[in-house]
């Protein structure tokens, strides 16, 4: 079962009748081409990534995204453009790029030593926020 609970415009899904569940569903016969939910009484398509590359589990050494279960937001390198990535800027949570572009800074993997590496910059995540090439 998925954890996405927002439509493509970022609006929070309504709770399903009789539950506390807000996650998007993909019921057969719904007439929707992808998972959906109700927002203000209307069926809305959800922000579900049709992942085509870098879709793996980053904790297993594959390129992928670290996504928060509660918010659906992804790790992101703070700031914009390559200059932020090149200087080893801090991490922040941001809306996941769906689907993500080739140059996204949302893609990471964990290497065999447990270091988390950003695909775009090839730098390790440093929780102090300092640039570190080790």
Q: What's the shape?
A: elongated
Order of strands across the biggest sheet? 1-2
Mean pLDDT: 75
Helix content: under 10%
User: CA-to-CA gap between the ends?
Assistant: 38 Å
Describe the sheet with the most strands: 2 strands, antiparallel
The helix/strand series, from N terminus to C terminus, equals EEEHEEE
Quote the beta fraction: 15-25%
The number of helical segments is: 1
Q: How many beta-strand segments?
A: 6
Secondary structure category: mainly beta
Uncertain spans: none
Q: What oligomeric arrangement do these chains adopt? A: single chain
Q: What Rg is obtained from the alpha carbons, in whole angstroms?
A: 17 Å
Looking at this protein, list some descriptive labels:
two-stranded antiparallel sheet, 4% helix, mainly beta
Structure description:
This protein is mainly beta and 134 residues long. 4% of the residues lie in helices and 16% in strands. It has one helix and six strands; from the N terminus they run βββαβββ. The strands form three sheets. A two-stranded antiparallel ribbon has the order 1-2. A two-stranded antiparallel sheet has the order 3-4. A hairpin with a 5-residue loop joins strand 5 (108-110) and strand 6. The radius of gyration is 17 Å and the shape is elongated. The N and C termini lie far apart (38 Å).
